[in-house]
Design a protein that fits this description.
Length: about 260
């Protein structure tokens, strides 16, 4: 009888260990794809890892990040909320708030991030998230207050300048948006997000009614920024499309075709 029980126990341990190994394997494969910014191929492995270990906060957050990148905002929100049920760390609350905002639940998003702000009024990233949520809700005056508060806490990090750039971009003050994205990249040249936004801003400036020479300068600056994005992220389809669009408008059809391909 004892031998039978020992065999059963061993089988349970073996099965459990095998499941854990598969989960680790799926997670590892997903990470390898994400290391090369291949979000599309990472997605099924992340999802498999979640199914095998649904209480793992790290895996849930990774799944949320992947689906957020894939523009599947509803799915991203679900994963973030599942992670929040296990851990209510400020970083997770911020992800939930931004995800709520991304699907248009602005009131809930503001309420959620204010929970984090109330818990820690000295956390710069709580205020930056609050500012972004207000921008998404088109409450630009309140966004300004939140972002200025963040900058008063820490004006050295690049993120505060990205946030100011986003605020000015939303206000359609593109020159000031450009200045702040430039400043963010001066402080951290490896950031991808402000480089993308700088490219978009230069394109807006090129189409803002300026003279032809100035417009060409802005188009060139936008093209340069998109080119840098594609070097940092070789799987960024948006960047290649935008490059192709500018090259096509410049009548550089062969180069445009290569980028669009």
């Amino acid at each position: 009888m004892h031998k039978c029980l020992n065999v059963v126990a061993f089988l349970f341990l073996l099965i459990g260990g095998t499941v854990g190994a598969f989960a680790q394997n799926n997670l590892q494969i997903a990470r390898e794809y994400l290391a090369s910014n291949d979000v599309l191929n990472a997605a099924p492995y992340v999802l498999a890892a979640v199914k095998e270990d649904p209480k793992n906060v790290e895996v849930l957050l990774l799944a949320g990040d992947v689906y957020n990148e894939l523009e599947k905002k509803d799915s991203a929100l679900i994963f973030y909320q599942q992670a929040e049920k296990i851990s209510d760390k400020p970083a997770i609350i911020r992800k939930v708030a931004l995800a709520l905002s991304a699907v248009g639940q602005h009131k809930e998003a503001i309420s959620k991030i204010n929970e984090a702000v109330d818990d820690d009024k000295k956390d710069v990233y709580n205020y930056l998230t609050l500012g972004q949520v207000y921008i998404n809700a088109d409450s630009l005056q309140k966004a300004d207050i939140a972002i200025r508060r963040a900058q008063s806490i820490n004006s050295e990090i690049a993120d505060t300048y990205v946030a100011l750039g986003d605020l000015y971009y939303a206000q359609k003050v593109y020159e000031l948006a450009k200045m702040n994205y430039d400043e963010a990249l001066t402080r951290n040249s490896e950031l991808l997000e402000p480089r993308i936004k700088l490219a978009l801003t230069n394109y807006k400036l090129a189409n803002s009614g300026v003279d032809a020479e100035t417009a060409n300068e802005y188009f060139s600056a936008s093209l340069k920024a998109w080119d840098e994005v594609t070097q940092l992220d070789t799987n960024n389809a948006v960047a290649f499309f935008e490059k192709g669009k500018i090259l096509f408008l410049s009548q550089k059809y062969l180069d445009a075709a290569r980028s669009l391909y």
